[in-house]
User: Fold these one by one.
Assistant:
Number 1:
Amino acid sequence: MESIQTERFTDRLYRNVEPIWSKNFHHSFVQGIGRGTLERELFSYYLKQDYVYLIEYSKLFAIGAQKATSIEVMKQFSVLLHETLHFEMDVHRSYAKSFGISEEELEQSEPTPINLAYTNYMLNVAHNGTLAELVSCLLPCAWDYWEIGKKLYSNYHNELETNPYKNWIKAYSSDEFGALAKWLIQLMDELTFEKPERELTILENHFQTTSRFEFLFWEMLLNQEEWPLQVQNMV
Ligand SMILES: Cc1ncc(CO)c(N)n1
Ligand SMILES: Cc1ncsc1CCO
């Protein structure tokens, strides 16, 4: 009897990285956001690093629009680009403002080695790989943050009103953010439909690598892992 393939490719991706995502959710930085106990200093460090991360990350959506083969997909990538630059980065800008950090300071943050390695990895694949490869790189960012947002919301919603990070939690657990993540999941399944195992393995590796970078990013933030030698620009 022939077996019927019922599992979606994204189910396989999810199963594959579940232990990594579980570590991400339980990371003390993430739990500190959930409980509202994370030091302000660390959160403002996060805002600066994540802001320059998002500038690079959003370019993946622009490259996605360029690589798309239908108007529908182009439209959706342009929505993702718009939503990241406006909705998502607005959350960062408004937190920064309340912390006394200017927009200029946010933009001019120097990415740490991990931050740079993460965005460079994705941008390299985006420029040189297929659309499916690009999506497999950007999906963990969207999907794992949505998972984190939803879980923090359900674990800590009773204390949310007094949590200084409630707007962050609300944004990443929102239906709006979730709908965009779901669209990316669906696109991943469409792009991989009936594709050979040799191609799927490559995507699984990108998905795993960027999921591991998500963990390294939290670690980097917690330990403020900067460049070893500080240099000044000559002006
Ligand atoms: C590092 C990182 N990963 C994912 C997201 C979600 O967009 C984010 N803001 N930052
Ligand atoms: C708005 C946005 N920013 C990063 S991913 C994403 C949409 C998918 O959740």
Note: Residues 80, 83-84, 88, 141-142, 146, 177, 180-181, 184 surround 2-(4-methyl-thiazol-5-yl)-ethanol (ligand 2) (CB under 6 Å).
Number 2:
Amino acid sequence: MITNDILYVGVDDRDIDLFEGQFVVPNGIAYNSYVILDDKIAVMDTVDKRKGTEYLLNLEKALGDRLPDYLIVSHVEPDHASSIRLFLDKYPKTQLVGNAKTFQFLAQYFDLNFDSVLTVREGDTLLLGKHELHFIFAPMVHWPEVMFTYDSCDKVLFSADAFGKFGALDANEDWTCEARRYYFNIVGKFGMPVQTVLKKAAALDIRIICPLHGPILSENLGKYLDKYNTWSSYEPESEGVFIACASLHGNTKDAAFALKEMLLSKGCPKVVISDLARDDMTEALEDAFRYGKIVLAASSYNGGVMPFMEDFLHHLKGKNYQKRTVALIENGTWAPSANKAMTEILSQMKDITILDTAITLRGTMKAEDKKALASLADRLCTS
Ligand SMILES: Cc1cc2nc3c(=O)[nH]c(=O)nc-3n(C[C@H](O)[C@H](O)[C@H](O)COP(=O)(O)O)c2cc1C
């Protein structure tokens, strides 16, 4: 129970191998859905059809002998909407509520009778009894049709995918870490639209945030709003340096670890290294956004850069990576080419400062390489 009238009817999914076909979720994922019980009953979204049967049982229990009047569709993505067919087979008289885009997209997934739907516009309200629902459009957070719903009676914001996180509800883990990985990998490209909806939300008296994934947020809401403000404005969140490396034979990786030791010994508060070939790419992406300074260290490869690094940089570009200071380290035997290849991709991003400290290793680290790394460490500690 979330309030006296709002019940949780979502489900945990711990069997899924990859969320959205690409993200590892070691602690699963929750598909959240809610019921508002009033003179009229509104259900807030459904769940992935992978868990449709379990969902309908939860719903039935929450409804007792009553029937839902409305199904509010805040996001058409299948992890929330693919049980709508199942839902309507059981509750055929329920009216679907969405905006024009909601129904345009739903028609791509379902053969529905769209004559009976209720199409809302930005700022429209729906009265259930004492609960009045206000529709707040949030286009591109993270699809074009996304809308938030604010219940002015219980002061609850149903925030669609915003404020969500990876991890089933019964996972005992920190919110920030998995919410950050979720944000940058799923919503990260859309910083401006998130800023726009945060401004709309600032005008509301919000006591509880009910996202479509992850825990219901009811305490210290400023913390979550602040994180979203930092993330969506592409500002660094933590002091420190992130080193991403891709190394064929380990020499560049050795240099990355040597640099880490130097940075720590010079007082850098935090240094995180990711081996892009072995570590989770989505965590590397998260760390690249978390810190303000990053070092890219890679082997030269066929006149370019090792493909894991190339892939990583394309991921960053796709997520609108910006406002960061970058240092480059390459390794090559006959014609080192990694720094040039990395610079080319970085030059397509906004507001990236590449330090004039580029280092070229040839095979193993030599004394002069260690000196160059030490002066890079100085520069990173002072810039
Ligand atoms: C398939 C392949 C392609 C390579 N391409 C280049 C290249 O274009 N230019 C170059 O200078 N070295 C090239 N190298 C050599 C590596 O960059 C070199 O061995 C480097 O020292 C590897 O650093 P690492 O020990 O960190 O992997 C290539 C090596 C391999 C196996």
Note: The two ends are 50 Å apart (CA to CA).
